[in-house]
Design goal:
With 447 residues, the chain is α+β, with helices and mostly antiparallel strands. It folds into 3 domains: 2-132, no CATH class; 141-225, Sandwich (Immunoglobulin-like), CATH 2.60.40; 233-446, Sandwich (Jelly Rolls), CATH 2.60.120.200. It has 7 helices and 25 strands. The strands form 5 sheets. Strands 10, 13, 14, 16, 21, 22, 23 and 25 form an 8-stranded antiparallel β-sheet that branches. An 8-stranded antiparallel β-sheet has the order 11-12-15-24-17-18-19-20, with no helix packed on it. Strands 2-9-8-5 form a 4-stranded mixed β-sheet, with no helix packed on it. A hairpin with a 6-residue loop joins strand 17 (306-313) and strand 18. The two termini are 78 Å apart. 36% of the residues are buried.
Length: 447
């Protein structure tokens, strides 16, 4: 019982939240310390707390001198704790209590204090002392990759690592978050697109809820590169900047001449061409050196009717390779189909359709056509998936390298009539001088 008095006195020495010195068994004392501490924490000022600690310490020393003369080391440590608290040297008092804990733990090991106190009392003592003398707030630590590389169209994801020496809660924020990016807790994710090619410096900020609140930042440099072009690209119109001339981004100088008033509008990535029913792009002498070829474009039709996507043709004639779209609602048997027409050397016309609803109106679709001159095989893809194919044998196309028309059939009616213009938006028009594989078409659709 005497040693219980010693340990209870140690706890009372440092709580600062007692109206008097409580001495009793382990469970009763621990409960009293907690309940009295909670009840009076908001009442007493720091001065009052220190005065009460002094009163309790004086009483504890008195009890030790009367009942525990043999525990000289404990008595000496307790007196030092009392003096440190009287001098408001709380950091020193905490260190002394830590020493006291180690000594008592040693005595427990030697079975000298086998059942005389509850070790949780000392843990509570340090906890309450920290209220009087909280440690200084330390800024949180945030760790992030210094640099990341990405190909446009891919997703960048990484984890941030944050910690706080004081155990404070940490909030993470991001300045100038890019379009398509998100920060969910410590996880950053960014779905990039081709319009975001460039270098980005992102600043992640970790802020704790200490007093005062402190912040730390981490800089991450992300470089978004353009996806590598598939080999064989001979024409590429991205429509990012459209005037009278539509510039070829493939490096082959196959520039187009824009006809009509349509400018740029939001496309599938960046800008697209506003095909307002009066606008088309023409390459008057599109000798692209094609035998085999692949045509690909993103299209968004805004009107229910049949409309041309592209045509290779001779002036005043419809011979060549044509791709049209029949939007949903035009005709029940060809609703939402993509049609391919082929003018053959034997003078015959060949054509076929994709299944219905492969290309409905009012939605972005990537349409692709491949032609193999050796087999006469034509394949139609929508959004990277094959939807139709047909072999026309060895009869080669009559012409695929005269004039190229995008979104217009010029010989169907006079220039300016909306009946033969595409109505909607086009973007990312590409022509290759070879047949892309199904895997390449699917990959291009996913970019």
């Amino acid at each position: 019982m005497l040693r219980k008095l010693v340990m209870t006195a140690v706890c009372l020495t440092v709580t600062g939240f007692m109206t008097g010195c409580l001495i009793g068994n382990n469970d009763t004392t621990a409960t009293a310390v907690e309940e009295e501490g909670q009840a009076t924490q908001q009442v007493y000022s720091k001065t009052s707390q220190i005065e009460e600690i002094g009163d309790c310490t004086t009483e504890a020393v008195k009890q030790l001198k009367l009942n525990c003369r043999t525990d000289k080391d404990l008595l000496r440590l307790l007196e030092l704790v009392k003096k440190a608290i009287d001098d408001e040297k709380f950091t020193q008092a905490e260190a002394l209590i830590q020493t006291l804990i180690k000594k008592i733990e040693s005595l427990i090991t030697k079975e000298k204090f086998d059942d005389c106190f509850d070790p949780a009392l000392l843990d509570k003592a340090l906890e309450l002392l920290a209220i009087i003398n909280p440690p200084p707030n330390v800024a949180p630590v945030i760790t992030a990759p210094a640099a990341m590389d990405a190909i446009a169209g891919n997703t960048v994801t990484f984890q941030l690592m944050v910690s706080d020496e004081n155990g404070d809660s940490i909030g993470i924020s991001l300045e100038n978050i890019p379009e398509g990016a998100s920060l969910d807790g410590e996880t950053f994710s960014w779905s990039t697109n081709e319009a975001q090619v460039g270098t980005y410096q992102l600043v992640f900020i970790a802020t704790d809820n200490g007093s005062p609140a402190l912040s730390t930042s981490a800089l991450v440099t992300i470089t978004v590169a353009a996806p590598p072009a598939l080999p064989g690209l001979v024409l590429y119109w991205d429509f990012e900047d459209v005037g009278e001339i539509v510039s070829d981004q493939s490096g082959n100088n196959n520039n187009g001449l824009k006809l009509g008033s349509g400018g740029v509008v939001p496309g599938v990535t960046g800008n697209g061409l506003d095909c307002n029913g009066q606008t088309a792009v023409v390459v008057p002498t599109a000798d692209l050196g094609l035998t085999d070829f692949t045509f690909s474009a993103w299209v968004y039709s805004t009107e229910i009717r049949r409309m041309p996507i592209f045509e290779f043709a001779q002036p005043g004639a419809r011979a060549g390779a044509h791709m049209w779209v029949h939007t949903t609602g035009y005709s029940s048997n060809i609703d939402g189909t993509v049609q391919v027409n082929l003018g053959m050397r034997n003078g015959q016309w060949q054509y076929f359709y994709s299944p219905s609803n492969a290309a409905p109106s009012m939605s972005w679709k990537m349409v692709t056509m491949t032609f193999n001159s050796e087999t006469g095989m034509v394949i139609i893809y929508v959004d990277g998936s094959q939807v139709a194919s047909k072999s026309f044998g060895t009869s080669a196309l009559m012409v695929i390298h005269e004039q190229l028309y995008l979104g217009w059939r010029p010989d169907y009616s006079p220039e300016g009539s909306s009946n033969t213009y595409f109505k909607g938006v086009m973007d990312e028009v590409k022509i290759y001088d070879r047949v892309l594989s199904s895997e390449e078409v699917a990959g291009a659709s996913a970019e």
